[in-house]
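Quick one, T. Sequence first:
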Amino acid sequence: MKRRPIPRGLRTRLVIAFLLVSAISALTTAALTYQQARTAILDRAQDGAVHDLRDQVGSLAPDLPARPTTADLRALTLQLDRAGGARNWHTAAALRGGPPVAATTGATAVPAALRRAAATADGAVVQRFHRDGDPRLAVALPVATADRPARPSGLVVYASFSLAPQQRDVSSLVAAARAGVVPVVLVSLVPALLAARRVLRPVRQLRSATEKMAAGALDTRIAVTGDDELADLGRTFNTMAATLQADATALRRMEAGARRFAADVSHEMRTPLAAMTAVTGVLDEDAASGRLDPETAEALTLVADETRHLARMVEDLMEISRFDAGAAVLHLDEIDVGELAGKTLALRHWQDRVEVSVPDGLRARLDPRRIDVVLANLLGNALRHGGSSVPVRLRARADEDALVLTVTDGGPGIPEELLPHVFDRFTKGDAARSRSEGSGLGLAIAAENARLHGGTLTAANAPGGGTVFTLTLPWNPA
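Structure tokens:
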């Protein structure tokens, strides 16, 4: 059976904390009340017993002879036992240094500690003790002489009675205190829920506003009321949101301006570059014919190369601008993957430089022009920087729901610090490499084309050396 997780939210913790405080307060109050009531009950029983015993002794002691006998003491205790009333005490009397004498033999057991304390005391002495599990109270009352009240007569009267009724009262208090804690805790649950709701309401509003901002609604604000810490947090959130909105608006305006500038410049350069490319083609033929002197031919070749590089860069800039503007669209067609790979290699005369392994009859719905751009960028990058010891390989396979194409080379690989940024714009593997070898946009355009198909393009270093680019595209077999 799967165990349900214990709630750990702030609401639960607030309610639990509130209930704990209520329970601790109720228990503390009950404990203090119990202690005070217990002390009051026992003190009242003790004071009442001493008062009653003193009254009874005061009325009976004057009738005793100056030197009372054991019979006199037994008669005194019998009268005192009869006067005990509801306390049902048992008394004993003893002359100084003599044993206690009771009306009934063994009826009163006087604790030895009480006898020692009474031998030197001028007033009543009390002691609580237990006998056979029964709580009891013993009182020792020295009796003064009739003619000289301040002088002890040597006679001490002892009384002992059960505190069971008082113990039952104390037990009733304990039970009442225990029974009262549960209702207090249950009743406190209602204000705890209300307090938690009131405290968490601004927190929930703040969370909802944060989620909206994370979704792009930077104009989100929350209503702030009060002057507590949560209100300060709400005002701080609103200030942060306003700053983020202003910064994001400025950044979008700057980014849109930069994209528009790049698109406009690329578009304006495209026409003159087309004418320049046509002219450089003628110049290339003249340079190759040998009719020009070597220095002029070299200069014309350099101009032609730079013109073609500039034309490629302009085309790349226009392509990336279309992605940024969201104007790039797919023109899907049912194509043979092997034929597409062969055409990509043949168009660039790479047939003898790349090993191709594509299953026969592997077909997919793709945009052939955009996949050609992806493969051309990956293969061209591998041929330029992959070394010559291991040939560049293009592999394709079909999984259950994906078409996977990999391009591997045997070069030194991509530096680890550069690997996370290899698809960023204007990123080059070697900062010292000549600018004529690439625009720095090829892999970025390839990644954008992969995303446009709903796929991914990743780069990694092979364990044995070299780089592996993996293009994964959605694929649904017919």
